[in-house]
Amino acid sequence: MTFNLCVLQVECHAHFPQDDIWAFCRKNSIILSAYAPIGSPARFGSAGSPGDLLKEPQLTVIGKKHRKTPAQVLLRWLIERDIVALPKSTHQNRLRENFEIFDFKLSQEEMQIINSLQEHGRRLFDFEMYD
């Protein structure tokens, strides 16, 4: 008996968009699922640090245009790339916000702006400890 891979979950966010894996998954009809979709700002004390994805000024500008938070913009960016987003939060208001991403769409220009954030390439999770 054989099974085909149907879902692949990897770290994926605007600073680390996993473009090669995304293309492979699309080509092979595999659902890509993103963990740390907003850059995991509270992990490892990264909130407010220079690499904090939520502090990217472009996201604030796009968010204001749509009356959305930077986190909502990032989640919508993933959804428009056909990537499943699994945001984590323990705050009721943020949990609600995470669902309020289906009432707007990003323009091609906005998608490109967010795509350009990958030049800052920042992986949050280092798996060297498992080698």
Structural account:
This protein has 131 residues and is an alpha/beta fold. The chain is built from five helices and three strands; from the N terminus they run βαβααβαα. A three-stranded parallel β-sheet has the order 1-2-3. Helix 2 crosses helix 3. It starts with 6 loop residues before the first strand and ends in a 16-residue tail after the last helix. 28% of the residues are buried.
Question: What's the short version?
Answer:
The chain is α/β, with parallel strands linked by helices and 131 residues long. Helices cover 35% and strands 10% of the residues.
Write the layout of secondary structure elements.
Blueprint: E1 7-11, H1 19-27, E2 31-35, H2 57-66, H3 70-80, E3 83-85, H4 92-99, H5 108-115
Parallel strand pairs: 1-2, 2-3
Helix pairs in contact: 2-3
